[in-house]
Amino acid sequence: MPTPTTTLALGPDFLDPEWLISTFGLLGILAIVFAESGLLIGFFLPGDSLLFTAGLLTADGEYITYPLWLVCLLVTIAAIAGDQVGYAFGKKVGPALFRRPNSRLFKQENLVKAHEFFEKYGARSVVLARFVPIVRTFTPIVAGVSAMRYRTFVVYNIIGGFLWGTGVTVLGYFLGQIPIVKDHIELILVGIVALSVIPIVIELLRNRSAAKRGTTPETATALEHAAQEVQQHRHHY
To answer: Pick the residue with more confidence: 43 or 123?
Structure first.
């Protein structure tokens, strides 16, 4: 197994799943999963690649020595809890969130994407969004803003948290036991980091560019339309 520094050149430390796991261990994984699942500040974190890498390293047994069932259980709980917090935040803030100005950690464009995703798939979006970076963070918040029926949200949240948290981790674990994968785990980890860093860096650059331009008329119109829609739908779920 290479030292974590072999992959740092591909991006900053906080986007490198192997570095995160080797530095913070299972507690770090749980904190990141929780943050990315429902906190506004977690949209840039590498959730999918982190879980896949956690599965690989659990099979390898170097950085994670806990049994697979415990890792999956705790990850799933963290994912569900994160979405619950996101839902509660969205419900408390309400449609006013769509009029919140841009900041370093909050971009209106991300909220619009999550709203469109929620409008397209309805309650199923709580499950489907688990597998879509960035949208994953904002969808439970939009569900709360829209006052989606709480019991419905909890059911879909549990299903989504299990499928994502356990499914991606187990996939990494069993692939990590295939001889060709195990023999080339260093290259695979480098590939995982590259795949996780590139989209996030692109999104960060887009957000920086958007911040310099300010809110475009198109975005402002979409936000106002979204605010009106959630106001109308707050009692329809």
So the answer is: 123
- Report whether pLDDT(84) > 70: yes
SS3 category, 12: coil
Per domain, the residue ranges of the chain are 4-233
pLDDT at 216: 53
Task: Work out the angle between the directed axes of helices 47-60 and 150-175 (0-180°, nearest 10).
Answer: 50
**Mean pLDDT calculated for residue range 157-163:** 96
Can you say whether residue 46 is alpha, beta or left, with left for phi > 0 and alpha for psi between -120 and 50 degrees? beta
Q: Which long-range contacts (CB under 8 A, 24 or more apart) does 152-159 make?
A: 152/123, 152/237, 153/87, 153/123, 153/126, 154/84, 156/123, 156/124, 156/126, 156/127, 157/80, 157/83, 157/84, 157/87, 157/126, 158/80, 159/127
